[in-house]
Write a structure and sequence with these properties.
heterodimer, A: mainly beta, 6-stranded mixed beta sheet, B: 4-stranded antiparallel beta sheet, 11 strands, 50% strand
Chain lengths: 111, 114
Amino acid sequence: AQSVTQLDSHVSVSEGTPVLLRCNYSSSYSPSLFWYVQHPNKGLQLLLKYTSAATLVKGINGFEAEFKKSETSFHLTKPSAHMSDAAEYFCVVRGNTPLVFGKGTRLSVIA
Amino acid sequence: EPEVTQTPSHQVTQMGQEVILRCVPISNHLYFYWYRQILGQKVEFLVSFYNNEISEKSEIFDDQFSVERPDGSNFTLKIRSTKLEDSAMYFCASSVEPNTGELFFGEGSRLTVL
């Protein structure tokens, strides 16, 4: 069975500093991995996806994630946080099942 | 930009009542989904729908639940005889292709069962 674990329920960063949201996955298949973002009162939006091509994946709004098979990780990063990045972020895996979501990480950005 | 729309945004109902949550998927999408998120818990898959029939469903999606595409635009989730534990945010999603993970989600319908 596929699963993802988001290691932090809440991350707080200062504006202009790097963002790191951690995600570990478990999959018996070669997984497809995704990050979704949910801004307040908005639907879930796809940030980026990994589907066995390049291990470093670039997404929207300057986010990127690196697939590391040896560490079973798919951490989300951004070099410089912006106030508009404050949102809930979900790491998601798809193997041989529908999408399986992590519990989410709430990112707060402090001015 | 096309988007998935859901109504109502919030519904409060009494235990035992029937609830219908409505969704308008993106017009050229062929695959439709319902997910839910109980407060403080993970987003969970309920059901996927294609070509006017359920293509996949989870253990959560029991006889209490049903989905329908009554016309060319709406996609509905019906919950018969609601229970307290049905209180959750329900997300509708649609996609052009299946199994890609690239779903477009609505803003969600919050259901509160009293």
